[in-house]
């Protein structure tokens, strides 16, 4: 029979925390985890395979003395795929779990924009493997400015906050300036990366991002070397 690592009240608290976060408890399951040679009480978010684990039995040594501490692990973390945490109180575990739920929700809501970018037929001609590295002509720069003005207008309408709209304007302005000093291939690399960053900032779902790619491709069709 497995060792009972936590109190039943502590195990049940995790379910209440999931409900309080507005998430579906049926998407989570209890699962034994291990880390650093320790057995952990674990919770896995099945749709993403994200996990959180904890144990109160971590043996911490300090100047010859030994203490029992809480060891917790979580994936994802705030800025990395995996994180290991240590604490002396159950309250610290609770705080770490609440944060983890936010990270899971954040990552679960993110579309794989890079995969969509690679597969999007609407952007088939906006690839980054151009052999042409020459700078744009004056005529081409005129077409690019016109296309970017259309793209900016479209994206500002898609923005739901002033902060998002400001981000769009800033990124499109940067693209316009980059066209005057970059060759065709380099500029296309910049343009593709900019579209991805805008899609992320505007928290676009897959359909909306594909719409962005189609609009950008159509707007740039009149640029001689890109059409």
How is this structure best described in words?
The protein is an alpha+beta fold and 227 residues long. It has two domains: 8-108; 113-219, no CATH class. Helices cover 48% and strands 20% of the residues. The chain has seven helices and five strands; from the N terminus they run H-E-E-E-E-E-H-H-H-H-H-H. The chain has helices at residues 8-20, 90-108, 113-119, 138-158, 162-179, 184-201, 206-219, and strands at 28-35, 38-45, 50-62, 65-75, 83-87. Strands 1-2-3-4-5 form a five-stranded antiparallel sheet, with helices on one face. Helix 4 (138-158) runs antiparallel to helix 5 (162-179), helix 4 runs antiparallel to helix 7 and helix 5 (162-179) runs antiparallel to helix 6 (184-201). The termini are far apart.
Largest sheet, spatial ordering of strands: 1-2-3-4-5
Let me know the average pLDDT. Answer: 86
Total of helices: 7
| Shape field | elongated
Number of strands: 5
Secondary structure: helix percent: 40-55%
The unreliable regions are none
The ordered string of helix (H) and strand (E) elements is: HEEEEEHHHHHH
What integer value in Å does the Rg equal? 25 Å
- End-to-end CA span: 67 Å
Estimated share of beta-strand residues: 15-25%
Largest sheet: 5 strands, antiparallel
Overall tally of structural domains: 2
- Specify the structural class: alpha+beta
Gist of the model:
This protein is α+β, with helices and mostly antiparallel strands and 227 residues long.
Per-chain topology:
Elements: H1 8-20, E1 28-35, E2 38-45, E3 50-62, E4 65-75, E5 83-87, H2 90-108, H3 113-119, H4 138-158, H5 162-179, H6 184-201, H7 206-219
Antiparallel strand pairs: 1-2, 2-3, 3-4, 4-5
Helix pairs in contact: 4-5, 4-7, 5-6
